[in-house]
Amino acid sequence: MKKSIIFIIFCLCSAVSFGKEEIIIRLPEPKLNGSFSLEQVIAARRNVSEFTDEQLKINQLNQLCFAAQGITDKEKNLRSAPSAGDIYPMQIHAVLPDGLYLYDPAAHTLIKKLGTDIRPMLYVASFRQQVVQKSPCIFIISGSARKVEAKYRGKGERFITLEAGHIAQNI
Q1: Which of 20, 70, 102, 109 has the fewest other C-beta atoms within 10 Å?
Q2: Average pLDDT of the chain?
């Protein structure tokens, strides 16, 4: 089912992107000095299943995208989450009420791929979890096992699963 969902989203993105001018949102520079230490953040971390329906501010979305796949060393092209062999086969999509956006780490931008609210489809795909239907922002983490397979034969799916975990932990 997971592959079907990713395929459906890919098809939606492809169909809408073809022949349309893309809307690009330039994100501000990420804030690198937070108010809390890493230890404070870890100690305060909790699982939460109730969220506000308040829209994310651009600075919040910016920080989350940077935490997911932001470039931390421009000379070496290193990112905020590790990647086997520095392949970086992962993509981050942000689902907002006004559409689906692809995060471009190199340009630190969001590219609008779909101008439709797909949260109802994700709600069904997530076994009807209410939090998915009402969330003001959902991140879709996807990866290309094929990119990894070129260097690490037979380990593509394993490595993209690990990388998705690294990214999710950062978010």
Answers
A1: 20
A2: 89
